Structure formats: structure tokens, C-alpha cells
Amino acid sequence: MTAATTALNLTGKALTPGAQRSWWLREALAAEKDGLACPPLTGDIKADVVIVGGGFTGLWTAYHLTQTKPDLKVVVLEQDICGGGPSGRNGGFASGWWDELDGLITLYGEADAVRACRAISDSINAIGDFCSAHGVDAWFRHAGYLYAATSPQHEAVCEEVVKLAREIGAPEELRALTREEVKARCASPAFRSGAFMKDGASVQPAFLARGLRRVVMERGVTIHEGTPVTSLNAGPPAVAITPNGTVRAPRAVLAVNAWGVGWPQLRRRLVAWSSYIVLTAPAPEKVAEIGWTGGELITDFRTSVRYFRTTRDGRIAFGGGGGRASSRIDDSFTHDMRAVEEAAEGFRRLFPSFSEVPLEDAWGGPIDVSSTHLPTFGTLEPGNLFYALGYTGNGVAPTHLAGKVIADLVTGSDTDSTRLPMVNRKARLFPPEPLRSIGAAVVRRAIIAKDTAEETGRRPNAVMSAIARMPRRMGYLLGP
Length: 480
Known about the structure:
Layout lengths: L2 H5 L15 H9 L11 E4 L2 E4 L3 H13 L5 E4 L15 E3 L5 H8 L1 H25 L10 E4 L3 H16 L6 E4 L1 H7 L8 E4 L2 E3 L2 H14 L3 E3 L6 E3 L4 E5 L2 E5 L1 E4 L15 E11 L3 H6 L7 E3 L6 E5 L5 E11 L10 H14 L8 E12 L5 E5 L4 E5 L6 H15 L24 H21 L6 H12 L7
Parallel strand pairs: 1-12, 2-3, 2-13, 3-9, 5-15, 13-20
Antiparallel strand pairs: 4-8, 5-7, 6-7, 10-11, 11-12, 14-17, 14-18, 15-16, 16-17, 19-20
């Protein structure tokens, strides 16, 4: 242990990020009783649709396909296990888009921005309905979303977000809270004023992913775990090539999240950044002391956002964007002790009354960051490849919508979903390598430095502030 880990009271598995799966996924795997096996692919098979990726996007796509076309033969290929990637280690925030109105309006105009927000609202409710209908105990709790400002600069941002919701005619979706109202919901001494959004539900993400896996398998979907796709020939027909076999299908879906940075068709649409979560030991009495008993999801207004929620057994899971950025996904995204310490520092700053409560687990991984900070779904040439990407760390609800959109595109259905503004939109591309990775890493560190300075009452370094703002000056909807 180092002086930093001791001072932050990091213990146990928090000292070995990446050496084990996320706490969410370990809990989910330990609770499984179905014994459904998904052995690696061996041999050459045919299907109607092949889906590359067994996370939320791939599994929701399979689910919606079985809803609309139950006779289709659907095969899912997953390099690890279903939920082994971002779907099984995210914060479990199924949240609305009313805080994203500025970017949505910039991209699509007011009417389509509202349509997009309403579609995400529907997906949040649909996830709860899915869990109830299929007996998936994913801890779904629709308790809303609290935004807490931690600096004067962030209070100004909060005021603009609330004002925009009011101006587009949705004041009931996102409303301002006074400092007293914020602290009545969660009494952190760092919190100032804030806002409350109705659209916010927490889930245990790995239970949701593994529950989806069970449901689609019961509907006849074939899943091969431990099966990386080394290449995909579009054809048509498309041919997914794996180490020990192939899948030939008229249509293929790329549901690869941050691993899209390695796919030729997607790589310049994405940058991969890291995000980490630290988890306290159970401390329900401490959670009650600060009044956080309503189950609200909470984030601050940092550009390098911190996100936190409670668990059923009285823990706090506290996440934050790390500084890792690259176009190649490797162990540096999952074994980064510096990112763990940064997340722990944020937790200790916001929740000093938990100083004696150890942080006993930590995990992290890559997120797929788009140039607009928002996801897009669509079709790739030659017309039989479909994709969803760019969740930028907020994918629980949008992946449900993505699965519905992709299922409709695959089956050629003209629906309200396929006419949403984020479908088949032309993306602004990131620079080629090595500029993409170098620029992303430098900008990410600058954003964190600027946020931390503002939060601690210091004047941000002028150079760091200029670098942090560079993406927006270049036309990307990223950064302050």
C-alpha cells in the first residue's frame, strides 16, 4: 500500500483494479442458477442476423428482433461473456436526456430534440417493464436524478440547463433546486444549488445484462461467448470470422461500444476514454445520516463528470472519468490505479463523514466517446451492416432505444424509431492517428485539471483552460 491508498482508506479489491471483474458482475454471476451455457463458436454456421457484441446494445437488438420477427435465426458473438464489458461495470444510471438539450438542439433543432428526449424517457420505462415481465431483478428503481453543483461556475451551468428545459416547454422535466432542497436529498457539505430530473432510474447493470442474456436465449437466440470476431466481411452476405469458425448472414450488427475504435468502419467516429468506480463497504447508517434515502441518482456539473448512487445493502458506488484516452483498448483501461485514486479523492471530498468507511472495491474500463457527446445509430455500406455507438458513458437507457432502432432497420421497418434524428446522421470525424489519441489524452487531463481547480476554489490554469475548450472551438460538442 502507498501513502495515497492509506490516506484514502482504499482496501481489499480496490487495490487491484482489473484483477477481478466488477462487483456488479461478480454478484450477478454468483446469483445465476439457470446454468445456460454459451460455448465458443466452433465450425461454420448460417444465420439471418449476426450480432457482434453481447452487451446491452447487442442483447437489446436481439430482444427486439425476437419481438418483431420471432422466426429469425439470430446469433450473438461475444469475445468475453455477456456483460463482461461496459454493460456489466457501468454505474447503472438509466437517465434521461433533458440535461443534453443544448447539444440536441444544436444538432437537430428544438422539435427533434424533444422527440429524442421523449424516446429516451420511453426506454427508461420500458426497461422497468421488461424487468417486471421477465422476472429480472435488476434493482430497477425510478427515483429520479439529482444534479448537484459544487462550485459557482457549475451553478451557472445548472441555471442554463434548467432555463433551456423551461424554454422548450418542458419545465416539469428538469427543475431547479435550492441549496437547502439539494441537501434535503443528500447532505454533502460540498453541494450548493442544483436541479432534479424526473427521468432517472437506477439498475444493477450486470443483473440486467445477464437477465437479458437469459431472456433472449429462451426465445431461441444463439449466443457464443468467448468468441472474438477477428474480421467482418460485409458481403453481402456478411461473414463474421472468428478463431474457430464463421457465421454467414445476410445482415450484421456491430454492437462493440468502445472497441469500435479498432473497426475500420467506425474508428474515426470514436475516442475511447476511461471511467472508474470505487465502492464503499456497507454503511447504511452513514447513508441515512446524510439523508440519502430516496434512491436518487446523483452527478455533479464537472465536465469530467462524477456520478454516484447507493446500493441495496447501503453502499455508495462513486464513479468518475479517468484521464486515460487511446485508440487501442488494452489493460491500461482496466488496471489504472491512478484513476482509482482520483475517483477516491472525489468521494472523500464530497463525503467527508464517510472517512472511516473503507473503499473496498474498484473497477474501470473504456467508454466510447462520440464527437457530439451523444450516440448515433444507423446503417453502413453496402447497406447490410448496422451499428450503434457513442454513448459517452451514458448508455443504459440509450442502448434499449438503439436495440429497437437497429431491429427496425434490420427488418426494413419504417417506424417512429427509425425516424429519430440520431438515426443515420452524418458524424463529424475525429482526426486520424496519432493525433486522435494524443489530442484526446491531453484534452482529458486538461478538463480534469480545470474542473478540480474550480471545485477547490482556485483559478484554473490559463493554458489548461484553453486546452480544455479546444474541442468546442474545433466544432466538437465536447468539453466546457
